[in-house]
Amino acid sequence: MKKILSRTIYLIVFILFITIGFGSFLLFYPKQLPDNYRLLVKNSQGWNEVASTLHNDKAVNHKLSVKAAVRIYAYFNPNPTIQAGFYHMSGKYSAWQIVQHLAVATPDKIRIRIAEGHTFAQIRNSFPADLKRSTSNLSETEILSQIDPKSEAVNLEGLLFPDTYIESSNINELEIYRIAYKKMQKTLNKVWENRDQGLPYNNPYELLIMASIIEKETNLPEDSRKVSAVFVNRLKINMKLQTDPTVIYGMGDKYQGKIHKEDLQRDTPYNTYTRHGLPPTPICAPSQASLEAAAHPADVTYMYFVAKQDGSKESHFSNTLQEHNEAVQRYILKK
Asked: Is 109 helix (H, G, I), strand (E, B) or coil?
C-alpha cells in the first residue's frame, strides 16, 4: 500500500512538473513572429479575441498561453486593457512578452492632413494610400447622409475642418470625415454665436460659404478681415460679389489655370459676376482664421480690392470704382 501511495505521489509530482514545464515553455519561450507582423485589434475586441487572432496568425503556440499570460499579468496589474488598432512586432516574442507589450503599447497611428483651401475632391485624393477606403463608391451627398442624415447641405464641400488628424491606423475614410465634420460643426457654431451683429448671413452655413471665399482670396491674416468687409459691404447693397474663385469653382475641370472673358460671362450657380448673393455652397474648406474674418469683418467702407502681385501677397483696397481701376492699372497692367 505504501509503495502504491509513493508511486502515486511521484506520478503526480512528475505530471505536475511536466505541466509546469510545458506551461512555462508556452508562456516564456520566444517564438519567431511572421515577417513584418502586424496584429489588428478591432474595436470592442478583448483579450480572448486577441488570443485567438495571435493563434490563427501563428504568432503563439496556443491561444491558452496568451490567456494564461493575461491572468498572470492581471495579478500584478489589475484590469489590463488593449486599444484598438495595428501593433507592429518583429523578431522573437514569447506569449508573456506579447501580453506585456500589448498592455502598455500604443497602436500604430496614421496621420491625415486636411488642408485649408482644399476642395472636397482634393481632400479625398490627398488621403494616404494605406487609409482604409469605405466610401469609394459613394457620392458626396451619400457620404454626408451617412455622417449627418439631418444636414440641410447638399454635399460635404467646406464641411470638413482643416487640421492634421492623428488616428489609429485601422480607422477608415468615413470615420475621418465624421471626425472632421463634427469639428467643423463645433467650430462654426461657436463662431456663429460670437459673430458681429448686423451681418448679411441668415444662418451659420452662409457664414461658412463666405469664409470659404475669403480663404481663396487671401491667406494673409491682416487682409482677411478687410476682404470680408468688402464682400459684406457689397451684400448689404445687393451688389454682385464678382469674385474669381467662385467662377473657377463653377468651371470645374474646365479651368486650366486662367479665366477668360467668356468664363466670366458664362452663367453657373457659382458665377458671382452673373448672379447676386452668395454661391449655393462653400467652395473649399476654410480655416479658423477665415471663419473668424467672416464673423468679424473690418470696420471699413472698402468696396474693392486687387492683389498687388508684387510678391508680398498683399491686396490694395479701394472705396470707389475709380480708385480701384487706378489700382488695377498700377498692379495688374503695370501702367
From this structure: strand
